[in-house]
Design brief:
The chain is mainly alpha-helical. About 65% of the residues lie in helices and about 0% in strands. Helix 1 crosses helix 2 and helix 3 crosses helix 5. The chain binds zinc ion (2 copies).
Length: about 220
C-alpha cells in the first residue's frame, strides 16, 4: 500500500530543497487556508484559538499574508482576545497570572506540519530501497539536517547507510559551491563565471542545515 505521502514525496524530490520541509510547509499552509476560508465560524477552531491564545507567532503572521483573510482572522483572533481577557479578569499575583495566561494547547498549524513529518519518516522507513522511491530520492537535493535526523533512526542500518551516502554527496557538492561563491569575492577570481547554484549556495546551506524558513517555528509539538 502506497500512501499519498509516498507520491507527494516522489514529486517533492524533483523540486528544490528538502522534500520533507516542502510537504510540511504545504500542509501548514493548507491548514491556515482552510482555517480562514472554511472554519472561521467552526466552534472547534474557536476553542483552539482560545486555548492557544491565537496560533504560534510564525503561523499567526502567516495568516496575515493570505489574501482575503482579514475578516476571518479578525473573527478568530477576537476569540483568543476574549479568552485572554477572561483569564486575566481577576487580580492574582503576577506569577500566577503569567501561568494562567500561558497557551493551553499547541498551535494546530504546527501540529499539521509535525504530523506530515511523521508520515514522511514512516514512508522513508517503508519504501527507502523500493526502486522508484530510491531513484527519486537519489536525484533529490537531499534532506535538511533536522529532517535527516528525524528519519535516520527509523531506518535499518543498511538503509541509513544508503541515505547518508547520498547526503554526503549533497554536502560535498554544496561545499564546493560555497567555496566557489567565496572565491568570487576575491579580486583575482572575480572574472570567473559564477554558476547559479554557487551564487545561491549560502542560502541553500542555511536551508540544508536548519530547514526551510518557517518549518521549525516557535510552538512545535
Ligand atoms: Zn527539511
Ligand atoms: Zn504554528
Amino acid at each position: 500500500m502506497r500512501s499519498f505521502t509516498y507520491y507527494d514525496l516522489i514529486e517533492a524530490f524533483a523540486q528544490t530543497g528538502c522534500a520533507v520541509c516542502r510537504l510540511a510547509l504545504q500542509d501548514a499552509r493548507r491548514y491556515l487556508d482552510s482555517l480562514l476560508y472554511e472554519y472561521s465560524t467552526d466552534p472547534e477552531a474557536h476553542r483552539l484559538m482560545r486555548s492557544g491564545r491565537g496560533l504560534c507567532n510564525w503561523h499567526s503572521w502567516q495568516l496575515t499574508e493570505i489574501a482575503g483573510g482579514a475578516l476571518s482572522a479578525a473573527v478568530l483572533f477576537r476569540s483568543a482576545l476574549l479568552e485572554v481577557r477572561e483569564v486575566a479578569a481577576e487580580s492574582e499575583s503576577g506569577r500566577r497570572t503569567a501561568e494562567r495566561l500561558a497557551p493551553r494547547s499547541l498551535c494546530p498549524a504546527c501540529q499539521a506540519l509535525a504530523e506530515r513529518e511523521q508520515l514522511c519518516a514512516e514512508t522513508f522507513a517503508k519504501h527507502l530501497n523500493e526502486p522508484t522511491f530510491e531513484a527519486a530520492w537519489r536525484a533529490s537535493e537531499g534532506l535538511c539536517l533536522p529532517h535527516l535526523r528525524l528519519i535516520l533512526p527509523a531506518l535499518s542500518q543498511a538503509n541509513a547507510a544508503r541515505l547518508l551516502d547520498h547526503q554526503r554527496t549533497v554536502w560535498a557538492r554544496l561545499q564546493a559551491e560555497l567555496e566557489a561563491f567565496q572565491r568570487s569575492f576575491q579580486a583575482e577570481h572575480s572574472a570567473e563565471p559564477l554558476s547559479q547554484a554557487a551564487a545561491a549556495s549560502w542560502r541553500r546551506c542555511i536551508a540544508l542545515l536548519t530547514g526551510e524558513r518557517g518549518v521549525f517555528g516557535t510552538a512545535r509539538p
